[in-house]
Amino acid sequence: MGINVKLLWLLTIFLLAAAGVYWLWSAESTVNREPEWAGSIAISLSAVLCAFIGFYLGRVHKAQGAELPGDREHAEIDDGDSELGFFSPWSWWPIALAGSAAIVFLGLAAGFWLCFIGVAFALVSLVGWVFEYYRGNFAR
């Protein structure tokens, strides 16, 4: 976590410098010498948000006192690997759920009536995915 904090503070400094350069450059390139405020404020707020995250992570790192595998010099890749859960390697339900989500978003773009069909397919896919271990060979 320590390297992440350092990177976020470095990104904050870079974004503040970029906001200053952008403000001066936009003021210099216009006819009436007025800077372009939208981009200047957006870059400045990005710097502020990076500073918020860097400050928070720095405080958490200091309070916990723990060291992540990425902070150790001789850490292995497997040290940072965590258990994500159990996922069925043979399940087709996630593909069906993704297809139904695609139909819903297509309905938002092309015609709202498609959303109803996509939601119906999504409900069937979600129920099938949740209860796939309660049918067939796995029924209790």
From TrEMBL:
GO terms for biological process: electron transport chain. One of its GO terms (molecular function) is cytochrome-c oxidase activity. It is a multi-pass membrane protein. It catalyses: 4 Fe(II)-[cytochrome c] + O2 + 8 H(+)(in) = 4 Fe(III)-[cytochrome c] + 2 H2O + 4 H(+)(out). It is found in: Cell membrane. It comes from the Bacteria. Belongs to the cytochrome c oxidase bacterial subunit CtaF family. This is Cytochrome c oxidase polypeptide 4.
